[in-house]
Amino acid sequence: MNPVAENMFGLKPGTAIGKFPREVWREFELAEIFHQVFVTAEPKEREIWLDPPAKRLIKVQLTPIRMEEEGETQGVLAVIRDLTRLRHLETVRSDFVANVSHELRTPLTSIKGFIETLLDGGLSNEESARRFLTIISQETDRLNRLINDLLDLSKLESGRTELNQTRLYLAPLVEEVRQTMDARLAEKRLSFSVELGSVAVWADEDRIREVLVNLIDNAVKYTPEGGSIRIMEIGRGNEQEFIVCDTGFGIPKESLGRIFERFYRVDKARSREMGGTGLGLSIVKHIIERHKGRVWVESELGKGSSFHFTLPKYEERLDKRIEHK
Asked: Could you report the per-residue pLDDT of 78-123, keeping only the tens digit for each?
């Protein structure tokens, strides 16, 4: 057994030498397949899930070892491949395709339905026609947002997007984002407070603006009338932590670990009704991680949410390093 196999099965070097398969592995199926190949002299191939703590999917290819073609089996050669990551990626890809198909089908079905209604005589009623065309326009905007988010996420995940990091202060960016949402804040009578100091971070301005737009937009969407939104920061050594707090509906405990997944929604009906694509928080996560930062959420149902993210603090040597390059 080579060192890679020993590591795969969590065995100390040399501990498997001189032992039968059933003495080495707890998995009955794995030990049994060795026995079957030895007895029948027939090669076998099988995928097996290893029990926790390993919890891995392995592909085992076993071949009998014989000195002569018709001679007695002397042993069994096993080639083992760890397929865990590959299977996970296949599942992610399959889920992604299914989610995209579903997200595209919903607005397209709505658009097609209203167009058919208009063609079947709906144009004769000007009021109804205008209402249908307004809905078609809204659904088209939703499709456009979804496609733009998909393209953005694809670039971030592939690493094709270069970061243009400079000395950046978040207070002006937050004010810029707030101004674009003034009408919505006033409509819902939401208070908006900013508690940001004068600490600069090393970040890409456009990308961090995108992070703030997504987080503040979510806070506005999911905070009931009369609530409040608060932006704060805390120094953490060579990092600066930023927090977007709201007094909204909150997130169930079971959803906290999945909230940054692509297309994951706590309340699918409410999210679609408010125009969400289900990709905003995933984009936030990728942007912050590209900056070598961290992002997480703390929340409780009915008591609001706090989205946290960190960015590296600006240091003069960072600029000098870029200039030197």
From this structure: 999 999 888 887 877 777 777 777 778 878 888 888 888 888 887 8
pLDDT at 321 over 80: no
Q: Write out pLDDT tens, residues 142-195.
A: 888 788 778 877 777 766 678 889 999 999 999 999 998 999 999 999 999 999
pLDDT in tens, 8-42: 888 889 898 998 888 888 788 888 999 899 999 89
Helix (H) or strand (E) run with residue 255 in it: none
Q: How many Cα neighbours within 13 Å face the side chain of 261?
A: 13
Structure token digits, residue 145:
């947002």
Q: Are 244 and 307 in contact (CB under 8 A)?
A: yes
CA atoms of 229 and 217, how far apart (whole Å): 11
Give dist(CA 64, CA 159) in Å, integer.
45
Strands (E), 147-304: 165-168, 191-195, 201-204, 228-236, 239-246, 295-299
Biggest CA-to-CA distance, the chain:
89
Distance from chain centroid for Cα 137: 29
Q: Which residues contact 281 (CB under 8 A, 6 or more apart)?
A: 214, 218, 259, 260, 264
User: Alpha carbon 95 to chain centroid distance?
Assistant: 12
Print burial letters for 255-275: b (CB count within 10 Å at least 16), e (below 16).
bbeebbbbbbbbeeeebbeee
